[in-house]
Amino acid sequence: MPSQQAELEFIDIDLCVEKIISRLGKDLRVAMPLGLGKPVELIDALYRRACDDPSLSLTILTALSLERPRESDAIRGRLLNPVFDRLYANYSEPLYLQDERKGQMPANIRLCEFYFKAGSRLGHDAAQQHYISSNYTHAARDVVARGCNVVIQLLAREGNALSMSCNPDTSAEVAARLRESQRDYVAVGVVHSDLPFMYGDAEVDATQFDFLATTDSEQHALFQVPRLPPIPDTDYAIGLRASALIADGGTLQLGIGAMGDAIVQSVLLRHKENVDYRELLEKFGVDQNNANLVDAIGGRDTFKQGLYGATEMFVEGFLHLFEAGVMRRPVYDFWALQQLINLGKCDPLALRPECLPALAELGVRELRGKDFDVLQYHGFFNGDCRYSEGQLFSVGGESCPANIANPVSQQFMATHCLGSQLRNGAVMHGGFFLGSEAFYSALRDMPKEERRKLAMCGVEKINQLDQNPRLYKAQRQAARFINTGLNVSLNGAVASDTLENGQVLSGVGGQYNFVAMAHQLDGGRSVLMIRASRIQGGKAVSNIVSHYGACTIPRHLRDIVVTEYGIADLRSKTDEEVCSALINIADSRFQAGLVAGAKAAGKLPNSYLVPPEFRNNFPHVISANVAWARTKGMMPAYPFGCDFSEEELAAASTLTSLAGLSLGGKLRAFINGGHVSDQSNQILATLGFNAPLSAKEKLLKRLIQGVNHKN
């Protein structure tokens, strides 16, 4: 446990820059966490110094630099940009990001990232050239290999205690690798008053930092993810199907975005309104086409045992699952104890002497001091007994050998040492978090004993099994690692981060690790969610393709793929079975071409036909089903809140309706646009239609009035 006794000492940000340069010289290679944990005020000070001094070389090593959203479309911008102005009034983008976006970064400064905001750096030559492709578990290794000599991290504070809060994911490992290499480096922690104090491995001792500073939270507010777009119909259909693959008593990993929110909403419906949930599964044909798979690995019932979260990103949806009592399966940090619980031989709420010989049967013999400490921390041993040099001592000073396999020791432990129930279990382990202001506020206001259940740790623990395979395998039972992809080839390979021309869309992140881990875990499954089609250049294009020139998940790791039209179980299947399963969940507008391509490649027999039950995979069918569910309150547009005001929501609805009009519909709206209503006036005011207006703006104004005209 990190020390909380020493009084913390802070220095000024500018003085911190001086001290870093004084110690390391003028070749600074700065590592910052992914996402929220960047100390913007400090990196800005370093950046300004490098801009003013061309002899200073500054390399920034990071991922997911958080930029303020901007809407370039003139019409949508009328609605969205004022909302962004409100949400980000006190957020300061890093200076390096502003200059990089404009192509104005000085020659002595370089930005290298291993993950982009999706699509934000397409066509950006410098970003594409300086991108580092790395599995997230290798990020710390690769940052150190790039010569990192400065580690900076945003921190939370409670009294004299410090926490890496949102980002214990890589910083601690980077520092550990630097210490092992005996490289001279500087570590700086910057305290932000609004950052929630998180526990687990996020707790950190002040002595691990060379300098501590504070940042102005008024000028450098935490970045918040806007809650603006409604969940699309396709994503709701995908999320519903994925939710039926989650096993009660299992393990869950999710990513950020609308699909993740759709899964969470579906899981909550399954738990709280089970009759409605089952009706929804029937409406979308899940039981008709995937009943056997759901029976084998998932479920339709409420969550009696609950779930445990083992996730790279602690997304806001996990908080909703926690608050609803779905995410409540605690895990404990001793492998044999966790195995006993899994086997039903240890009741965490009522420990019995039988647990002791049961531990011995699993292979536990002589307890070491650290084993005793973990078991006592979790309440298996009471707080009165103690361990010393291979002996267990009672409160009265009596002792026995710390050998659980010894019947005499078992009797002594049962009488003097056994606790009454387990404690300090974690219902989630997460690597980093990012979300809305409501999310941060909920974490800050959460009682400490509840917040401790949401333990943060490094990705070297979360994203793989290597550090402690016996423990992690026991904790991660019935794991469902659910992620998203761009497209899937008919051989089962998935592209998630890179386009066919080599342009990087986002990054590998932890996806490969979680997919591989699903294959290592007994009962583990990888679920990749992919929209069956997309609109590109005004035309529909299939995301299930014959072949593709980029690959994130290779074909030999194929597992489960979910589209809005169905679920394809690809594990242990032949190439012919994989082809047909993917074509069955493809958009029916493209099935004939996919079949022809597979036949030409010799992967399907010439006699193959798409089964009749899969020939009605059309967007209008999904939209009709979601509309039906929405009228019943099952699939709300904004299940977890929205950053639009009521007036902005009305304006957004109008613009959506206008965008969906045919030419004839727009003509009718223009004709009706001569009528003025209070509703249209309110929408026009919200969108800022004030005189004087251009001819195009006058036309748009008339169309808005026409869309809102009631005959």
Explain how this protein is built.
Helix content is 38%, strand content 14%. The protein is α/β, with parallel strands linked by helices and 711 residues long. It has four domains: 13-214, Glutaconate Coenzyme A-transferase (3-Layer(aba) Sandwich); 233-328 and 428-614, 3-Layer(aba) Sandwich (Glutaconate Coenzyme A-transferase); 335-416, no CATH class; 646-707, no CATH class. Strands 1, 2, 3, 4, 5, 6, 7 and 8 form an eight-stranded mixed β-sheet that branches. β23 and β24 (566-569) form a beta hairpin. The termini are far apart.
Brief overview:
With 711 residues, this protein is an alpha/beta fold. The protein has 28 helices and 24 strands.
Task: List the SSEs and their pairings.
Elements: H1 13-24, E1 27-31, H2 40-52, E2 57-62, H3 74-87, H4 95-102, E3 109-113, H5 125-130, H6 139-145, E4 150-158, E5 161-163, H7 171-180, E6 186-191, E7 203-204, E8 211-214, H8 233-243, E9 251-253, H9 258-272, H10 274-283, H11 286-297, E10 308-314, H12 316-323, H13 335-342, H14 355-361, H15 369-377, E11 386-388, E12 391-393, E13 399-401, H16 407-416, E14 428-433, H17 437-445, H18 448-451, E15 454-456, H19 459-462, H20 469-475, E16 479-484, E17 487-489, E18 494-495, H21 511-520, E19 525-529, E20 533-536, E21 539-542, E22 544-545, E23 560-563, E24 566-569, H22 575-584, H23 591-600, H24 619-631, H25 646-659, H26 663-672, H27 678-686, H28 695-707
Parallel strand pairs: 1-2, 1-4, 2-3, 4-6, 6-8, 9-10, 9-16, 10-14, 14-15, 16-19, 17-22, 19-23
Antiparallel strand pairs: 4-5, 5-7, 11-12, 12-13, 17-18, 20-21, 23-24
